[in-house]
Please model this.
Amino acid sequence: MSQVKIGLEIHAQITELESKLFCSCRGNYRDQRPNTNICETCCGLPGTLPIINKKAIEYSAMTSVALGCSVPDKIIFYRKNYFYPDLPKNFQITQYNVYGFSSIGIGGSFELDDSRKIRISRIQLEEDPGRIAYLEGGTNARNSALIDYNRAGVALIEIVTEPDFTNPKEVRLFLNKLSLTLEHLAVCDTLLEGSVRCDVNVSMNGGNKVEIKNINSFKEVERAINYEITRQTNMYKRSIKIVSETRHWDDRKKITFMSRSKEAEHDYRYFPEPDIPMIVLGDKFIANIRNHMPELPNQRFDRFVSGYKLSEHASNILINDKKLADFFESILKLYFSPVEIANFLITDFKSMILDDAESTGYLKNMKVKPEHIAELVKMIAADEISRITAKDILVKIFESGMLPSEIVNDSNSLKIADEKILMDAVESVFNTEKSAVEDARTNHEAINFLLGKVMKYTSGRADPKIAMRLINNKLKKPNA
Model:
């Protein structure tokens, strides 16, 4: 049986920073014209000097702690020398474990949902290269690429795992859980284009490892690994030697293709960055990071279950979307009814945002605010409106941004509790649904059909408890 080993190199931008890692250019380069978010420093012009972004060190140290890594007392930066068109200086300022110094984080672990731990080899802080935009023809075509240096110099956290994964599904689960951790740390908005990227190393039966680059999404990571395992398996069967190389993923053809032979670490000619002195962190810095750590997903899950008495299922759904979990807790500040609010968000609200949930600002840009949901759930709890009416009102809130009480007053949507009015509705349903009435006399579940017809007759405004009592009473009358 083939033994598969998979290791990851995840690159997460520190999107919360206002500026780049070594200069004052904007950290958020998106939606800017190509090559306008650049300066002499991030372009590597002669005579320029990098100035370290202190907040970047804090964010990367916090990420290291969250992933169980040790943070050293002192760190230094190195030059990683290689030529590639998106690297304006022809070297990258990064970190490296050598000469008695280590990266910002070493020797951690991250637990999967099945309690199996994935070892973290190191976490390092480095600068992002520019972006190559391939024209039609993709990475195989010659003379078909444009380069945008707006991204060059953006602060990047590289998370390198040991080859502890054995199948693509594990990798996908790990990446999803890691992204959620980065979001809760407020380090990285993972929904932003290009904010989290992943390179994959795959080897089989103790052979040479193959690196796969240019993978655009976690879904494509899973597909690329599946393809590479199949490719290497077929090569083993045919006794073809697998060489150590870098391959790219073609997400249109769904194949990997050879890019270049794989460099060894000594090919990069690492040496200490002469323009950035040693940085002494010290015990107080690390203790301060630990004391001010944001709440991690697992901690938040435990709090939702124990503090708010939510089910594990509901807690998982909320926490797996940090923005929705934050929205939920904002509503609780206005009306504390955790179980009812969570159920409404999960069943009614979430079904209306599925198309927008992949957008980074989908909650911020909506007309629905915490005060809308708080008032709506409060009206349901007070028996002023039914759940059916509440859903109709929610649709109108999405469209207009009006408060539920305003919509109710405009549309006269309050629940009908008047027995005379409801009895008229019941009589009408009994007259038009004679077959269902007969069925309901012997089959109790069929009564729900009659109740549904009454609700429809009253546009969802009937008080279901009163309507159900009236239906049962009428069914008991022999001549009804």
In short: The chain has a mean pLDDT of 89.
